[in-house]
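Appendix B, example 12.
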Amino acid sequence: MTLQEQIDRFLDGSPHAVVGASRDRAKYGNKVLRVYMQNDLTVFPVNPKNEKIEGIKTYPDLASLPEPAHGISVVTPPRVTESVVQQADVLGIKHVWMQPGAESPAAVEMAQAAGINIIAGTACLLVVLGYQE
């Protein structure tokens, strides 16, 4: 499958979640959340430390989402990304996009072994969806 086909499959469904969403507008965890919002896509922020980010109710983990996520954008340290991929697999989430800096070889291997459409080490969602500050 080409990278563009992977991206198309990732975006061809709803809702999405941003694991590692941040209230700090300078951080990528916030920018990734906002690019979904800028494109009128349903998105859930996931961060156990905040109740709301950008005015949207925040969830402590993927299992707490009000409905199953089609795909997740991961903006976490690589160690955390590994546990996020494990959670995604358990919940049946089949599309994971590790934003640059979030990927780890172990997380990528786990996702591939689980048959997850994994995007890592290549494209950035902010560029693909045309993020505007």
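The chain has a mean pLDDT of 96. Helices lie at 3-11, 28-38, 78-91, 105-113, 125-129.
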